[in-house]
Specification:
By secondary structure, the protein is mainly beta. The chain is built from 1 helix and 4 strands. It has one domain: 2-Layer Sandwich (Double Stranded RNA Binding Domain). Strand 1 and strand 2 form a beta hairpin. Keywords: DNA integration.
């Protein structure tokens, strides 16, 4: 589960990498250290990706708390 503590523990690497959660949700970790929430889904057999926002840009201390209402679990 992508908790606040788990997100803070992620370290940047030389290349972009993903840390998956569930149901297509993941965090993309950039070499700069920025974390962005993304969601992969399938529509008509094609994989699509939705950018949900950056970690730390919202008022909530829980990374998922600042997501749009329909995206929260």
């Amino acid at each position: 589960m992508l908790t606040d503590a788990a997100l803070k523990a992620l370290k940047p690497q030389e290349k972009i990498y993903k840390v998956t959660d569930r149901d297509g949700m993941y965090v993309r970790v950039a070499p700069s250290g920025s974390l962005s929430f993304r969601l992969d889904y399938r529509l008509n057999g094609r994989r699509e990706t939705v950018y949900l926002g950056k970690y730390g840009s919202g008022p909530s201390s829980d990374g998922l708390g600042s997501l749009p209402h329909g995206c929260q679990r």
